[in-house]
């Protein structure tokens, strides 16, 4: 089924083939109910486990999709490339590189992964690097710094995105490991601000609600060199898009990054909320939502659907 972006008129499909392949891949993956909901953040276990949506948005603003395209879920770790992008824009690439490296860690997202010599987090996609990136975003005060993050995500999505207060409260109540990572980073001098503030900002950014359609538009904005294809607003400069997509390629899928690159061949990011975003630069963005996760914390049906789409549409470019 070809769908119109929210509030837009449906125009004739530019390619019935794309719409048909999306529907076929959706049907193929729908029956896979393996994996489990994330439950280490209690509120994440409260979602409808069978929800499933698949959406593709092109760099010129065509949107195709199947399933629960408007079901809200929290962005979780898919926030990481976007906050990293804002930190790069605020502080400059060199200043950020002094604090966050760009080497794949090959470890799960919650590993501490600090370079033993420099103490820098290995990359901005693991939690240590993401908390550091959140600490580097500028603003008048803590509320303004989070608001700048939220607004930057809105520019990518082309719509107003809101915090899910229940998920935020749930993570803030249980996120001791992330707090520990924040304190370690503060002790090492990697973050300069109060670690509670940095980690709180990270919890908030992870708790922003999005839909699969939003995520596809965010991916298409990256594909379109940083310009939202629906609003035509610039969300990020082209050189920073390149930096962010490079880091997503090597580090976005954590300890499954090599498997992902060889089987899907696109820069991508997953989140424990069940979303996955993938980008074919210059061409299109893909988003999947299905909350049952594999051992790496990535959506089972999401990984499978991306593999199938990449194969059937010939998207593997890495
Ligand atoms: O740090 C956490 O626990 C979460 N808020 C985000 C983790 C996440 O999404 C990892 N990705 N697959």
UniProtKB/TrEMBL annotation:
It comes from the Bacteria. Substrate binds at residues 77, 127, 171, 178, 202, 254, 272. Homotetramer. Belongs to the glutaminase family. This is Glutaminase. The chain holds residues 18 to 335 of 638 of the full protein.
